[in-house]
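We close this part of the discussion by returning to an individual protein. Part of our work consisted of pairing the sequence of a single chain with a tokenised description of its backbone. No coordinates are needed to read the tokens, only the vocabulary itself. The amino acid sequence and the backbone structure tokens for this protein are reproduced below:
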Amino acid sequence: MIRVQSIGANEVEAAARVLTGAFADDPVMARLVRPQARSRRAKLQALFRSAILLARPQDVDVARREGADEIVGTAVWSSPAGGGPPRGALWASLRAAWELGPRSVLALARYDRAVRPFRPRPPFWHLVDIGVSPSAQGLGVGKALLGHRLGIIDEHGEAAFLEATTQQSRRLYESFGFEAHGALGGVTAGATAMRRSPAAR
């Protein structure tokens, strides 16, 4: 059984480590942070730490096995609630940019430009990142994370948006009602923009 709840105040690094491990071999992430890059794991950790801190704490979900404390899954959402960045987010973003270096920062900017045309009209939720620890693959962690947040989104009657970076993740998202809206070329080769209508089943 998988338990899902909002991230705790002292769990940012643990949640970011889960994403770092989950995206170690991701094809799109390899274009953003080269596999042969020096200190690649530290760069990915900084990137995911920044993503977590830029989100509202109530929009970051973590998953654990029932009866265990270890975080085995993380999902970072951007909600339509808006508002300014949480405390510490700006510093985390600057730190991430410094650790990533100019090449990766430019690649991230190109990624954002490629994704922008596919985003639905507000209000919508954006799944920024979702990942499962390699040791917990196949236990239904990803499904638990998605089901938890999409239940909340359906209560608000709002749309959701994400980018699938592999065929496996695309199939998972399709099982939750997401539909493909276009392939992302260039730096995002292999990724697909996907949308989910309000209360899609």
User: Anything to note?
Assistant: The domain at 2-196 is CATH 3.40.630.30 (Aminopeptidase).
